[in-house]
Here is the input.
Amino acid sequence: MFFINSILKCIKYIFFLQLLYFNNILAAEQDFRSSPEVGLENQKTTSAEYSQKFMIVCADERAAMAAKKILKKGGNAIDAAIAAQNVLSVVEPQSSGLGGGGFLIFYNKQKNILEAWDGREFAPNSAKHNQYYDIKNKKVSFKKALINPASIGVPGLYSMLADAHRKNGKLAWKTLFEDSIIYANSFNVSPRLNKMLSWASHINNDEYAKKIYFRNNKPKKIGSAVNNIELAKSLHIISLNGYSVNNGKVASLIHQKLHPYLTKKDLSNWKTIKRMPLCKKYKEYKICGFPPPTSGGFGVLQILSILENFDTKFDYKNTMLDEHLFLEASRLTYADRDVYIADPEFFKVPVKELLSEQYIKHRSSLINLQKAVKKFKNGNPKKFKKNNLQKGINFNLPSTTHVSIVDSYGNAVALTSSIEFAFGSGKTVGGFFLNNQLTDFSFLSHSRDGVKIANSVEPKKKPRSSMAPTIVFKNDELVGVLGSPGGSRIICYVAKTLFYIINFNANIEEAISLPHLCSRNRFSEIEKKDFELSIYSNLKLLGHDIVKKEMNSGLNIIWKYGDFWVGASDQRREGVAIGF
Here is the structure.
């Protein structure tokens, strides 16, 4: 009997070790998927820049200076944003570029209109609902999906920018490429790029990437020169034909690299979509974001709307109630996001119902002020009460960049662009990295019960995003422009920043510097920081299951105080604010 019991104990122990091992593997992969850009040990603090004329805030000083040059020549916010994006496409290849997509919101002061320009990639005709399953019908790992050509979506960023410029630009399109072409011929490696090159091993399989970013099989050192001659050629081609990525010489290069996964027909079929911005009042402000296929605008607005149902007239520095409420509001919102938000061309997204006052009040009533509720489920808007939609498995990854600009004419641009993972798929063509945006789809098309998942893979469908370019008004006057990289946590970064600026009158430097909070499921995530211990212990008392995370946001904010525009860039990255 003793022998049998010993064997049983041994079996149980082995089983426990196996379970622990597989849980660790799963956790590591999920963290890898949600944090594809590692943090940078940055000693700087967030500081503000002031200006009465214009303000530029973006992820790299070289890009900001290019935008400033355009504004001083008489260009407007659209011109400047494109010039900044062009330079970012060169010096920040891990985050965005010619092979990616993005969302742009433009406020035209003279006409008093807001435009939302959709430059999101879509799936080529070769896309299949089971493309993330192997021959044994098992779901492939994210790392395998990442480098699979089937994960590359049809790029749309530059054709969208060309369309937005054609309608709203002031300076000649070609002028906007001058600085980026100079940098493509030679630019210096920044600390963040150096660290990313050390971390993103999948780019070692690309010969051109190894040739220009590495020396003796090691990433080029900080300050070393990169000579991306092929990218300089591609930028020159696009400066002559803004639609070349989808219809032209650059499209031919992409086709040659990716055929038969992605064809010339797929590329030429991509067209910019102008959408209606998604706006809602929060207190005395009007917050405007981007509608689906991104969940960013919806997510920010729903979190803030839920929070508005609570009395938050307290000193947030002497209570945990603000953190508790924010975490619970985000948990409720992500439960809805995961089920209902998808490409509106393929699924009737119930955004109006999800943001209705009646629905928001019902969702808010589920929050307990004294303790965390760990099992919030998605709600059922009245119109969609009998839906059978299921939550999918997908991964929004924070290899993204954001540009906020206000020009001297009173116009504004919020532009968020991405290639998904760090350096996208790791595959280059024409000197730029191709995206892996199709991993933003659910890896499952149906649940085990056969129920359809809204954000599943289909040809010509756009994967759900979390990008949240945002423009804010008060008394019909422009007062704020913001956005951030950060994968699916972008929603929390932007919503939390607005919550503290508007609700608690925090200045923008303080709002950026506060530790991040986000709940995308039953766990409450808090940012690893020197002062998170007290937050951790107090939230534990309220019943939160806390997970400490590196939260590498890159908030770029412009806010109006009196007659001055104030700009600030997140200290967690390398961004800057420049005014004049």
In short: Confidence is low (pLDDT under 50) at residues 1-29. The first helix runs from residue 2 to 34. The chain is about 35% helix and 20% strand.
